[in-house]
Amino acid sequence: MNPVLAELRDKARAVLDPVHYDFFAGGVGDEVVLAENEAAFGRLALLPRVLRGNEISDDFPVMISPTAFHRLAHPDGELATARALSGTTLVSSMASTVPIADVVAAATGPVWFQLYVQPDMDVTEVLVRRAERAGCAALVVTVDSPVFGRHRRDIAHGFHDLPAGLTAENMRDLAGEALRNIEMSTAISWKHVDRIREMTALPLWVKGVLHPKDAVIALEHGVAGIVVSNHGGRQLDLVPAALDALPAVVDAVAGRVPVVLDGGVRGGGDIALALALGASAAGIGRPVLWGLAADGEQGVRRVLDVLRDEFLHVLALCGGELTRDMVVVRGVTGC
Q: What is the mean pLDDT of each run of 10 residues along the chain (335 residues)?
């Protein structure tokens, strides 16, 4: 892990309520896949090309992944995260502790809206309309959550509700209710994705795809992009690391839509490995929360600055290009 991110993680742990730190840091079950998301990067290496003559642009292929309840980490919550973007895309969670309109108004980069499809499609449509009115540039439907994950740390702490004064602000005033709970349902299917695509002109991404056959089905349903993700190790502890699932999904998509890797990114080298394996960008989750808890807006900005600097340095050392034939298993060289 990048040492600056490790420092921010440790500071976040020191300042946060231990219950809230465990909510952010923890995963499902025995947290096997939580650890594997990071370990997968350590199993791989890059075989650089040399003397390529490529100019290095300052493009930073990163987006901030959707994470809930930023005001548990800092009083300014999602507003601080949005102000720190400096052009980076924020995928704002449906479970944000700040309304989506306020997040977009504060943002210094594009904002996308993450959506859990609600069993009542009238409620889902109200959420879509709010995202449109707020000025969101895309919708990201999370598809790996037919039920809530069981997080043993939260169960041990008895942490099931936000503290007084905080709530999932996007869930207010929906279908005649002052405040609704976010609902999951095993009945949600691709037909619901079709209905959302019909009700909005916003680009529609799906997040939580691991199986290449699901990636192909997603294409058939007109998605604009796919996020390969295991929900940060928070849903099913039997799945592979997101990085391990990435190449097969990239191959199945075959360049027809962009594919983003989400899960376990802890340094600029991780971003480079994801791109070399075919990702268009990498999502950053927990490190943003560490920066937010440690130092608010400035902490988030520091996370992004450190990752940008490290990624561009790795890119330069790899000849300004990242391709799959450059990825080798650590300890085994070849081309």
A: 93 97 97 98 96 92 98 98 97 98 98 97 96 98 95 95 95 89 95 97 98 98 98 97 98 98 97 98 98 98 97 97 96 65
| DSSP tag of 235 | S
Rounded Cα gap, residues 262 and 167, in angstroms: 26
Residue with the two structure tokens 């983003």: 260
- Name the active-site residue from 160, 211, 231, 313: 231
pLDDT 10s digits, 7-23: 999 999 999 999 999 99
Give the sign of the dihedral formed by CA 220, CA 225, CA 228, CA 233.
Answer: negative
Q: Which of 312, 311, 266, 268 is nearest to 288 (CA)?
A: 266
Phi-psi region of 314 (alpha: psi -120 to 50; beta: other; left: phi over 0): alpha
Any catalytic annotation for residue 70?
no
pLDDT in tens, 80-119: 999 999 999 999 999 999 999 999 999 999 999 999 999 9
**What amino acid is encoded at 233 in this protein?**
G
pLDDT, one tens digit per residue, over 111-151 is 999 999 999 999 999 999 999 999 999 999 999 999 999 99
The CA R_g of the chain, rounded to the nearest whole Å, is 19
Please identify which residue in the block is written with the tokens 């499609």.
121
What is the rounded distance in angstroms from the CA atom of residue 191 to the CA atom of residue 222? 12
User: Looking at this protein, which amino acid is placed at residue 215?
Assistant: A
pTM, rounded to two decimals: 0.96
Residue 90's DSSP bridge partners are 64, 111
| 191-196, long-range: CB < 8 A, 24+ apart | 192/117, 192/121, 192/124, 193/117, 193/141, 193/143, 193/221, 193/223, 194/221, 194/222, 195/121, 195/124, 196/115, 196/117, 196/124, 196/128, 196/139, 196/141
